[in-house]
Design a protein that fits this description.
Length: about 290
């Protein structure tokens, strides 16, 4: 049957308020998107900087601390920090902007500091560094900023910098930033169905554990998570497994089994069940 064609949709569909496919496509359409803008924490950071004494003196508004609009950004590079030189027969050459030295803002904007850090320093911080920085400050808005950034650390992205361009993030990282966004949303945002296509691809064991914790947090917030996955450690944690097979490609596509991971182990036709059983035996013998 072709994709998207079905004869009937059954079940308690009314209890789901929205469906969200969390894919590995880049966050935002331009290279200007980054983790801190995607999680909307940059709005609060810009507000905080506009409140500093020198900023008030200069008449700066939060918009002056944006690299997306004219005002405070370096106009030479339009806030990119780099200049792209198009070459006729070669790939573009990317040079650091000489005017702002890659710092993306005008000199006066970079003079504004909060506890010794200017807006460029903040964008250079890793998620974990930023959490440490903002969580120890007394301003209310810093608490808000910390809360918005924290989900990034929870999904195992404590090492990315706040201002890291979306074009340099891997597919798995982009996917987890999207997950972090939903984790940061209010608990009463309804019961959503989240769909992930092989979210563990490219992840180390340690990060898979973090991802699983985050997915469980979604479930605890009243949401449903549907994963397309081959990873046995992930399958083992599911409440319900739908095993497709029995073989791959042309010889597959049938539902071989439906039920709990415990019962899947006893399903003779299922390769997944066989490997899941072997893995469980190995772990029991260890
Ligand atoms: Zn510049």
């Amino acid at each position: 049957m072709p994709t998207g064609h079905f004869s009937e949709l059954r079940g308690d569909i009314g209890s789901i308020t929205a469906v969200e496919m969390v894919d590995q496509n880049p966050i935002g359409r331009s290279s200007r998107s980054n983790p801190v803008t995607y999680l909307k924490a940059f709005d609060d950071i810009r507000k905080l900087y506009a409140e500093q004494q020198l900023a008030v003196q200069y008449g700066f508004k939060p918009a002056h601390f944006s690299f997306n609009v004219e005002g405070g950004r370096c106009e030479e590079c339009q806030g990119e920090g780099v200049i792209r030189v198009e070459m006729q027969f070669m790939a573009d050459v990317i040079l650091t902007c000489e005017t702002c030295k890659g710092m993306r803002f005008k000199k006066e904007v970079l003079e504004i500091k909060y506890h010794g850090k200017n807006i460029h320093d903040i964008l250079e911080m890793t998620v974990d560094e930023a959490i440490e920085f903002f969580s120890t400050k007394k301003e209310k808005i810093c608490k808000k900023i910390t809360e918005k950034i924290k989900p990034l650390s929870d999904v195992g992205l404590g090492y990315v910098s706040l201002g890291q361009s979306s074009s340099t993030l891997s597919g798995g990282e982009s996917q987890r930033i999207k997950l972090a966004y939903f984790l940061g949303q209010e608990r009463n945002s309804g019961s959503m169905l989240f769909i992930f296509d092989e979210p563990t691809t490219g992840l180390h064991f340690h990060d898979i554990n973090k991802l699983m914790k985050s997915l469980n947090a979604l479930v605890e917030n009243g949401h449903t998570v549907l994963l397309v996955e081959h990873n046995l450690d992930v399958i083992r944690c599911a409440d319900w497994v739908i095993d497709m097979g029995p073989e791959g490609g042309e010889s597959g596509g049938e539902i071989v089994f439906e039920g709990t991971p415990e019962d899947l182990i006893n399903e003779k036709r299922s390769y997944t069940g066989k490997y899941l059983g072997e893995k469980a035996d190995r772990q029991n013998n260890e």
